[in-house]
Structure formats: C-alpha cells, structure tokens
Protein 1
Amino acid sequence: MYSKCHKMEAAKKVFDYLEEKNVVLWNSMLGGYLQNGYSSAVLASFFSMSGFGFKCDEFTYTSILSACGSLGYSELGQQLHSSIVKNRFNSNLFVGNALVDMYAKLGSLNEARQQFELIRNRDNISWNAIIVGYVQEEYENEAFSMFKRMNLNGLLPDEVTLASILSACSNLHAIGQGRQIHCLSVKSGLETSLYVGGSLIDMYAKCGSLESSDTVFSCMNKHSVVSMNALISGYAHRYLHKSVILFQKMLIEGLKPSEITFVSILDACDDSSKLNLGTQIHCFIIKIALLNDDEFLSVSLLGMYMNCLRKTEASVLFLELPNPKCRILWTSIISGHTQNGWSDEALKFYKQMHCDAIKPDQATFASVLKASSSLASLRDGREIHSLIFHYGFNFDELTSSALVDMYAKCGDLKSSVQVFEEMGSNKNDIISWNSMIVGFAKNGGAENALKVFYELQNTNVKPDDVTFLGVLTACSHSGRVNEGRQIFDIMVNYYKIQPRLDHFACMVDLLGRWGYLKEAEEFINRLNFEPGSMIWATLLGACKLHGDEMRGRRAAEKLIKLQPSSSSPYVLLCNIYAGSGNWDGANSLRREMKGKGVKKYPGFSWIVVEEKTNLFVAGDNCHPCAGEIYAVLTDLTKLMKEIFEVDSSCDDNLIE
C-alpha cells in the first residue's frame, strides 16, 4: 500500500519492523523502489537480501535487471544473466522480458535481440521491450520491421507499442507512416488515451502538421502535462503566442508545468523582442523553486538571455547558480559569449572553469577555440591546444577541426596543416576539410586549398556550400578564373547545391578582381533575384581596382539605394573619380555625403598584451598609456626617417 502511494520511507519502516522476512516481502520492497524510481535502492536491497541468504526467484530478477538497465550497470547485468541461466530461470517469460529490456536500455541491441528470439511465448511486453530499444537507439527501420512482425504474429499493439512506433515516425518525420499508425490507434480505440494521444500530437508537430496536432489535442477527453508539452513545443518557434495560451490553459486545468514546458518556451525566446516573456518565465520558475538543481532548465535560461543579447543578466544568473557548476553550464556560458562576439569574456569564463577544476569536453574546447580565433589570440589557442592533449581530445574530430580553424585564423598555417595531417583517416566530417580549405584560401594558399579540395573529392565525404565558398575564394585570390567558373558549375549542376548570396558575390569578385568587369555585371544581371548590397559592393570594389568609372557609378547608385547611410559606396566612387582625375565628381560626392549626414567611421586594430586586448583607432588618445605609446611612435618615426635618409645617400653614392 505504502509503495503504491509513493511513501517508500513508511514502507521501509514497516519492512524493518518485521522480525521474519521472506522472499515475497523482499520482492515487494524491490518492486516498490523500482516503481518509484529508486533504482539504487533496488540494488542496495538486493545485496542485503543476498547477504541474509535469500535466493532469488523470477520476480527478484525482474526488478534487479530493470534497475541495472536504468543505472547503466552492464557488468552487473551480465553477471545476473549468468546466474539466471545457472538457476534455469532463462525460459521464464517475465525474466526473459526483463533481460530484453535491460540489454535494450544498455544500448546492447544485439544481445537484446538474441534474448528476444529465445522467448517462445512472447507477449506484448516482449515486443514492446525490443521495439522501444530500437527507437531509443534510433534504429527506426528495425523498429518498424519488428512492429510489422508483431502484427503478423496476431498480437494487437497496446499504448506502449503505438507510442513507441509513433516516436520512430517523429524521428524520421515520416508523416505518411504516422497517419497509418493514427488510423490503427483509432481502430484500437486508443487515439484519445493520454499516452497515444500525446505521441500523436508530438509526431504531427515534429512533422510540421500543427493543424493535425491541434485536432488530436481537441479530441482528447483528458489532457496531461506530456500531451500539452508536445503541443507547446510544436507551436513555440512558429506561433509563440499559442504556446503561451496553452501554458495558461495548463495552469487553469491544474496541471503542473514540467521542465520541458519551460524549456520549450524559453528556447523560442531567441531575440530581444521576446525578452519580456523570457523574463516572466524566469520569474515563474523561481516562484515554484524549480531552478535549484535543474541543469537542463538553467542552460535554457542562459541561452535565452544570450540570444536576447543580455550579457549582464546571463552572467548574474550564472553566478547565482549553486556551486560546483557542471561542465554543461560552463560550456553554455562560454559558447553564448563566443557566439555573440564577446570573446574576451568567453576566455575569462574558460579560465575560471579551469581554476575551478571542471574538466572541459569537446564542445567546451570548440567554443573557446572559436573565441581565440576571433581575437587572433595565438597564445591562448596554443595553451588550449596543450590542454586538449592533456585531456586526450587530440584525436577527436570536432576538437581537431576547431584547432585547424583556430591556427588558420591566427595566421599559423604550419600548425594548422600539422593538426589536419595528424587527424589521418579520422576526417569523416566535412567540417575538418572546410577548416583547412578556408584556412588556406584566406591566408594566400590558394594552390594548397585546391589541392585539399581535390583530395576531398577522392573520399566518401561530400562537400557542402562552405567548401565551395572556400574554393571559390581561393580561385579569386589566385586569379584562377577558368577554374573558378568550372567549380561553380560543378557545385550547381553536379552536387546540386543551391548557391547562397555569398557564393554569387564570390563569383562577382572572381570575375571583377581579374578584370572581367563586363562579365561580372552580366552575371549580376542574370540573377533571378534582386541583388543585395554584398554583390554591388563587390562589383564596386572591382571597379575601383580597375578604374572603371561608368560601371562603378552604376554599382554605387544601386548600393546607395540599398544602404543610404553607409559611407562605403561614396568613398569608393569618390576614389574612382579621383583616380581618373574627375575632381568635380569627387567634390560633388563629398558635398552629397555631407548634405545627407553620412559619416565615415574609422577602422581599428588591436593587440593582446598580458591577456588584455587593446584597441586602437587613428589619432586615438583614449588609451590609458597613450602618452607612452605616442612617445615610442615618435621615436620609431624618427628612426625610420634616419634610416631612409641613410639609404637615400647610399643610393646617391652608387649613382655617382
């Protein structure tokens, strides 16, 4: 009674009070702990039972095998399996089902299937155990095959069967098969049950058919948190207001929102316009004290603030979370800062993580290496590389790809190539190839970039849009115009990759940079969409390079219409006019800029000194060490002038 009422402490007191215990009582305690989710207590009780000399029966084995599956105790499960065979319980249906379930939960599907095939008088639990196992490990086709076989054997699917096979349909976005299962659930009279109904809602939502999800939801006599979560999650990213209405309905119906409810809504609060809603959800979570030990929810809250560009709020939330903070939380705050361009802060959080002795993983290293790349901080990158070796991630593909990218962006191509070559045959993902190709392309290694691309074509890895962008960039920088034309054609007609805006801009740059301005303009005119500022700016830059005033003026006019407040088209066209001696045109443009209030903002450079990034702008006096900097600059200028004068006099003597 106490077990069924979720009062395991009271059940334990009664059990301990009994002087004489038998196998039935022990099994009751084991079953009670298992049903209430206390798998560790099941094991502890089992060892106590064995210590008192009680022998296991089929019900004991059923409970302990299930606990091993839940806790991931593979070795203990195999030992129990040997004991089962030794004691001749392996032909028992309950024990056989428990073995299939345990191996499936452990991810050992071959062993699970072997045990399944050994069961003679299979029931629904047998079939459900193997089907659920295949679905959880994402072997959906095997799950479909077993489901068909179950039907051919004359067994009617129950709620668990239908819910599991609907999850397989969701994973594959197989709405056709999902509709067939829906028909079967109607035929079985289970379509409005909480379990099957929730799975139908989830399947339709993930397949993009929200109307069908809504229809199923409306037909259900009773709603659960699971069914409402499925619909809230489905609506969240496209119709957030409907998710909020469903959330309010959940509260009105007296249902308690779960972590998944909040995460679904928070993940949809992905820009500043939704910050108010995200903050309200945060307040509600605090009110019901759900945040304290829930890492899943904390990560979503951090993500929400980062997506809304609220760095301070994210940092405050992170500091308020209890210590020690887990690796997932550290990685979340680091990646959030990196993705928003706050690389300095990302590195500071990473160093604090290291000081707190939290071990990074591949995702952590990938994020912090990206931060080092953004700052061109080779020193930080090398220190991180040494830790990657220390933790044994040097052969991990994700981490190695990030290293290749970091070294390339920091200008250390030698180290980038070394990491790439050390990956050997472990380059099964296009990311590592792209990192090397783009690294060469952006550092003047066009020939090597093309060499890597042709090497890639001899592997089983398929190039993607980023690959071709890197290769086209390499062709543009090295003047390989014909090769660039061919590669663009291969991308579109052989690999069937739809070019993005930057691919078109790269082709314009390739043609324009090397003097094919007419062809570049014709290429733009043939596009089946209205060209954006990136394309016209590229053509304008090429016109400046070659002094083509006529085409430059046309490109500048287009660009000014698209970006009226940008100084770039005015400055570039002004330089074209000045280069051709058209001073009237140049002065007219300057007056037009002034009349429209268009200002040219200066660029800046930076250098990292003693782990601090220092920014500089021409004529800047804001730096705290500006006096010392200008004093050194004056000395350097004087020294350069002296060297120039000496060189000039040497040249004069040689002439004489």
Protein 2
Amino acid sequence: MEGEADNQRRVLNLVAVFEEHGAWRHKQAPHIQPTPASSQSQQLPSPPASQSLSQMDAQHQAEQGNNEQQQGQRGLSFKCLSSFRHKIREDNWRRQQDPGLKLHSKEPEEKKIALELLETEQAYVSRLHLLDQVFYTELMKEAKNGKTVPEEVVKMIFSNISSIYQFHSKFFLPELQKRMEDWSCNPRIGDAIQKLAPFLKMYGEYVKNFDKAVELITVWSEKSPPFQELIADIQKRKVCANLTLQHHMLEPVQRIPRYELLLKDYVQKLPPESPDRDDAEKALEMIFMVAKHSNAAIAEMERLQNLWVVYQRLGLEDDIVDPSNELIKEGPIQKISTRNNSTSEKYLFLFNNMLLYCVPRVIQVGAEFQVHLRINVDSMKVRELNDAQFPNTFLVSGKQRTLELQARSEEEMNAWIKAFRDAIDRKEKRSETFKTAVHGLEMDTPALKTEELGRRAPQWVRDNLVTMCMRCREPFNAITRRRHHCRACGYVVCARCSDYRAELQYDGNRLNRVCQECYVFLMGHVVLEDREEKHKGILEKEAAEVSGRSLLCSSLQMLDKNGKGGTRGWFVIPQDDPLVLYIYAAPQDVRAHTSIPLLGYTVRELPQENSRHLFQLVQSGQVHTFLADTEELKQRWMRVMARCAAGITHPEEGEEDAESCDEAE
C-alpha cells in the first residue's frame, strides 16, 4: 500500500508541475523557459529540457483540433531518430532566462551550468517516471490479464527503461542534488559524473531498440484496439502534456548528447585554477565515449534500416536476406556481350560478401530489380581493361562467373574498382583460409591458369576478336563451322573441337561444353605428346602470344592497288622474328593469314589526304599501302618498319616494349 501511495503522490506532483507549466506556457514564447530559483529546484521537478522541441509539435496538433484518437495511432518515423542528433546541437533546447528576471545573476557561470544540469535532470527523471511507472506499469498490468498484447511485446517496447529510471532516480539525481547543496564548501561535480558515467552505457541497448519499439507500437495499435485505447487514455492525461508515447520515448535517446553539450560548456566556463577542472575534463571524455557508444548503436540501426530497404527492392529473396551483410556500393552499369559485341543496361549491388548482378523489372510490382546472378567476393578478382572499342571497362572475375563491365566515365570506373578491391581486401583479412592474392588476372591471355581450370569462371574471348577456331585453326563460317565457347578456358572454338562435356566446379559440378584440351585435362588424362610437339607452320603464330612479345602491334588497314579499299587486320612484328610482318584477321586469331618479309623494303610516307594517315612498303614492283588510325601510330610503324627493313633487329633506344602493344589490350 505504501508503494501505491508513493506512486500516487509522485503522479500528483507531476500533475501539479505540468499544470503550473501549462499556465506559464500561455504567457511565454514557446522556445523560452524560465529557470526556477535554486530553492525550488530541490522540491519539484521542472519541465523537461527538451520541451521546446516537442511543444511546437504539440501546439500544432492542438491547433488542428487535438484529436487524441489520431495521436494514439501516430508513430514516429525513422527520420525522427536519424535527425535528432542535429536538433540536439541547436541551442533552442537549452533553458533560456527571461531578461526581466535576474535569477542567479551574481552566481559564477560554472555554477549556473551546474544548476541547469540539475534542473534538467529533475525534469528528465520525471519523464522516466512517466515512461516506467505509468506507461510501462499500466500496459504490463493489462498484458498480464491478457486483455491487450503479450507481455513480451510490452517488454520489447520499453527495453531496459526500468534500469535507466532506477539509475537516474536513485543514484545520478541524488548525487547531483547533494553536490549542489554542498557547492559553497565543495564547488565540484566532475568527480561525481566521472564515477557514474560508465553506467550510462546501458543507453546503447535502449537506443538500438528504439526503432523496433516505435514499429511495435504502430503494429499493435492496429492489431489490438484495447492496446490502442489504453495508450490513448494515458496520453489524454495532463501529465503527458499533449504528447504521444513515442515522443516521451525519444527523451532517453536525446539525453546523452545533451550531457555532453552541458558538460563541455561547464568545462569551458571553469577557471583555470578550479579544483574541479581535471575531474570535469575526464568526465567529459567519458561522456564523449558513452555518446560514441550510443551513436554506434544508432549507426547500426541506420545500417539495418538501409539494408532492409535494399532487400525490399530485391524482392526479399531468402538466400540473400542476411542482417550481417553490409552494402558497399550500388549503381547502374553496362554489361558487354561477348556474343554480339554490344552492351546492355544492368544494375549492381556490391555487399561485403557478394555481388548481385541484377536487371530492372519491366513491371515493378513488389520488387524493383530481379537478381540474375550472385558472385561471391571470396576469391574474386578485378582489373581494368584497355579496350579501344569500349572505354572505361573493367573485368570482374569470380568463381561463378566473369563479367566485362563498362562504366559511364573514368571516375565511375575507378570508384567501382576501388569498391571491389576494398571488399576483396576486407574479405581477405577476415578469412584465414583466403589463399589467393588479390591481383589482376593474367595480362597475356584471358585463359585461366592450369590449376584454376574448371574452378573459376573464365573470361570469354569475344566473338569478333577471332576469325578461326582457336584450337584447330580452321576459319569460321556461318553454316558449317560456327563459333562456340569453351566453358573451361573461354576460347572461341568450333563445334568439332568443343564436342565434349566435363563437370566444372564453379558451376556446381554440372556438365558443360568444353574444348578437347580442357576435356583431356579435366578428366585426368595426359595431354598427347604428338599434339603438343606438332610442328607449327610459318603462319601458325598465335596473335595474342606474339603481340605480347612484339616490337609493335596494332590495327591497320591494308589498301588495294587502287588505294581505295582493302581489309582491316591485326599487324604484328614479333621480337623473335623481327624481319617479318604478320597480318591476322583478328587480335586473338591463332594463325596469320599473310606474312611480308621486310628485309630490303623501303618505307615511304605519303602526303596526308582527307585526314587519312597513309604510308607504303616499296620493293621493286611490289607496293603495299597501309592506313593508320592516327598520325602518331603511322610514324611509329614507319620507324619500326624502316629499322627492320635495314636488318636492325634490336628495339630502338627509348622505345618501350609495353608501349608497342597498348592497343592490343
């Protein structure tokens, strides 16, 4: 009975306070609150320090008719939580003094701030009493009777509010009151705050649960009319000051940052010789760490909220919804097709552990995107591609698939590559079993290393880069010899050379079309020696192989005798055969269709006409006319051909080998 009587007395005191505050509010501006005398602050709780923020909303509701039923249903949006930190840092929540009142005018500045801390703490404890002893107690009582909602729901809504209330009412507030009573002989509060500050970390649990609590109030207000009616009934009481339960619940979320601001102001106003300076600075540092802990909980909530929004855009598929994931980057991208040499619009979601390769839904009902492919970050590789036809392209290679992607600009490409590499680095650091170094794929050839064959999706050679089968060297045609891709090495091969099936580990050990050489390797047989040691003809030099070790290689056009037309091809002068010019139909062909011995030829420059960069190789009655894409490329070819025609086989000093084949990549 004594407990109930005590609770009644506390409620009556709170009613008296808010009645007094309601009469005062009609006389003062909404953002100005008087500071009561120090003698009064020891007797009755003052209005909450954050009242100025919430009053504006309450007054606006009163102007709209003060519909309490709607108040009971209305909840706070997530934006309210994510933006409260900015509101706290405004000065309108601080208690302002009426210029006509000279309260504490002769007191030192640090004491005024200490009194403000005490007064706001009294108001805060009143708010905690309302949450714990009124809302929580009455809702839990009805829940135990089975009339509203399950008890667990009430506990989840209020989290550890009871512990917070007990700490402030029995420890923190009494300690501050005692210090202010003894201020004349012992003017200090820093040591008391320093002693109790570690307990404020309990706010992390409350803050982390806040968004879920607001959601539960909204959901159960719709599901349970008795629950909604009880909350609305409590909110009609004068002690609630026309504010909703959700607004009162926001007060603990705002309290720690306000401690930090008040204590920072207190330290600034302390005289250098003050005995409280060292303790106050240490207390401020501890409050800062508590605020950081609380902010970390808020950041975690924001991360989960943003992650949930992404999952909704993807259709909430069970195999991708994981609260431990972290979204690193998302955005549109162009996918380069190896079949028809074109691009198509796609959308990427890069998480810390996977890449989702998506396409926008035509009819966006429920989900905005459809996931076409999932590539694990584990063992992923990424590198930039130097492609004249498709600028700003990069390669993403994973165990499940290899993608050639094109960004809209160089800056966007670099941002994507950096995001991928950051994700790969983080995955490598977290995984003890990660053994593959994060470097680019092999630059010489798109084929995989032998030990990776079948374990990693290969980079497919584009159809337009070859004119003949990369295994048997027979030319392709549209009817009898069509192009196919080996799923193990990525080569473009004919049907006869790819008429095999092998299980590939990266594709879940399903049977896939592979070429003969990959089939022999994957099935565990030794490669036949006569196949390996077969003597190659003079033209059987693979374009990609010799381009990587060449004096110069690029695309040129060889004109006919009239100088009006001709065929475009891939021209290479190998380092190991510098006296011969090899001409391929495409950069990845395994056999040259023509060769020209350079020894004895004369290089002749033709005047530029119609922006065409022409030059010739001349010997007796033979004349070969070439058309380069740029003047600079033309001059490089003329220099290299002239040296080779004169029998000078070593590279010219200053001519870098890497430069010679920029366009080949």
